[in-house]
Amino acid sequence: MTGIYTRRFVPNFVGRLKSWMASGKKSEQLNRTAHEVLSEITSNQDLITAVCYLWGDLGQPPKKISFLQLASVLNHYKNGGYYPVGGSAVIAQKVIKSIHQYGGRVLVGMGVKEIVAYKDQVMGVKMDNGDYIKSRQVVSCASLNQTFNKMLPRPDVMKQLDRLSCDPACLVLFVGLKAGKEALGIKDNNIWQFISNDCDADLQRFDEKMGEDAAQGFPVMFLGSGSAKDPAWKEQGKTTLEIITFAKKAWWEQWQDQKCLSRDEDYQTKKNVLIDRLLEDGLYLNYPKCRGQVEVVDLGTPLTCEHYLGSHEGSIYGVAHTVTRLHPRFDKVLTPYTPVRGLFMSGQDITGAGVISAL
Ligand SMILES: Cc1cc2nc3c(=O)[nH]c(=O)nc-3n(C[C@H](O)[C@H](O)[C@H](O)COP(=O)(O)OP(=O)(O)OC[C@H]3O[C@@H](n4cnc5c(N)ncnc54)[C@H](O)[C@@H]3O)c2cc1C
Fold first, then answer.
1. What is the 252 CA–ligand 1 centroid distance (Å)?
2. Pairwise CA distance, residues 11 & 14, whole Å
3. Minimal CB count within 10 Å: which of 203, 252, 280, 324?
4. How far is CA 208 from CA 177, 199, 247, in A?
5. 177 and 238 Cβ atoms separated by less than 8 Å
6. What is the pLDDT of residues 132-172, one digit of tens each?
């Protein structure tokens, strides 16, 4: 991975030289999927699936995910996982402190409508409320798609992105339970749940059937409890838990033009079916003591992610984490540098999915 970051992050001659050298190499591990590499070591599909169990962290199943990227996520967990004391909001609170310390300001709930450029030099940003903020340097942490499709339309950049798909969107079930973690048997570990040892086929079937046959089981499910991981959690008699699975935005398109929180009743009806299944197949299966203990529950759909995170098509991790993503042909677009002077990119489209990676 270091080689890829050098190619993409080091400006000018050194990066270009590295890209050129990489484009000549044919069979590097980075051109191979996790399934290809592991199949050379074993034919045991159960074992391959178990070794690849973290593929959900990058959105692509074993026959599509890049071996190298999956290996770096596995390596990242070598000494266990990490959770910020006080919850994930603490990360933003601490970063904001530093921004203030250096004279910066943080605007919350305000969107950028347009990145203004003149003769390929960035000049500032226009906000949704009409404010104009002048600056000859802008760093966009929105996706490449949002930035160059909406905020500063650049067909040349979009053309380079043409051959890159996006990672899937997701469903996130937020559950509030009226008992403490000990009473419910919930620990601080995550659970990844699969329905067979062929995650690629399961995911494809689920996608084709538009998720309507959820009765056959969600191909993948993640369960994690934020409150159980947080030593600073104060509500000892209560527990929070999230269940995440993949979904397509297309399943929700009929409601996309309706306002968030006031969509038609049939949107809620569809959500209710999925909520029941996720509770049965996910929560109660793994934590039977939770039955009868759910105090609040709601489901975030790809439209929710699009609304709150500004993610392209509700995609969970942006540019798909397939082997294609690592190809040198994309070095010029999956990089902090843009064709507009003073405009830089950051975040998961550039570095890869995950909080640590994006930071
Ligand atoms: C449900 C879910 C669970 C996850 N769990 C984990 C986990 O446990 N561990 C982990 O490491 N990673 C996890 N991830 C992945 C991780 O959250 C992302 O990889 C990471 O946050 C990406 O950071 P980013 O800065 O690229 O994008 P984001 O964190 O998405 O930040 C982009 C920001 O840009 C803003 N934005 C977009 N458009 C505009 C606009 N026009 N104007 C103003 N602002 C705009 C958005 O509001 C957003 O705040 C999870 C992701 C999801 C969706």
1. 21
2. 7
3. 280
4. 34, 14, 11
5. yes
6. 999 999 999 999 999 999 999 999 999 999 889 999 999 99
Q: Residues 6 or more apart from 162 whose CB is under 8 A from it?
A: none
Q: How many CB atoms lie within 10 A of CB 150?
A: 16
Q: Tell whether the torsion through CA atoms of 157, 113, 165 and 50 is positive or negative.
A: positive
Expressed in angstroms and rounded, the spacing between residue 309 Cα and the centre of ligand 1 is: 6
**Domains of the chain, each with CATH number or no CATH:** 2-76 (no CATH), 89-164+320-358 (3.50.50.60), 169-309 (no CATH)
**Extended strands (E) in the chain:** 112-118, 121-127, 132-134, 138-140, 169-177, 191-194, 220-224, 239-247, 294-300, 343-345
SS3 203: helix
pLDDT of residue 29: 60
Nearest alpha carbon, ligand 1 atom 10? 354
Give the separation between CA 141 and CA 138, rounded to whole angstroms: 10
**Are 199 and 62 spatial neighbours (Cβ–Cβ below 8 Å)?**
yes
Answer whether 146 contacts ligand 1 (Cβ < 6 A). Answer: yes
- What dihedral do alpha carbons 73, 79, 85, 87 form, nearest 10°? 30
Q: How far is CA 233 from CA 85, 94, 256, 262, in A?
A: 8, 18, 36, 32
With beta carbons less than 8 A apart as the criterion, state whether 219 and 204 touch.
Answer: no
Give the global pTM: 0.91
State whether the beta carbon of 34 lies less than 6 angstroms from ligand 1: no
Q: Alpha carbon 344 to chain centroid distance?
A: 20
* 298-325 burial code (b ≥16 CB/10 A, e <16): ebbbbbbbbbeeebbbbbbbbbbbbbbb
239 three-class SS: strand
Task: Report pLDDT for 13.
Answer: 64
Nearest CA to ligand 1 atom 50: 354
Residue 171 and residue 244: Cα distance in Å, rounded?
Answer: 6
Rounded (10°) CA dihedral 224, 230, 235, 237: 50
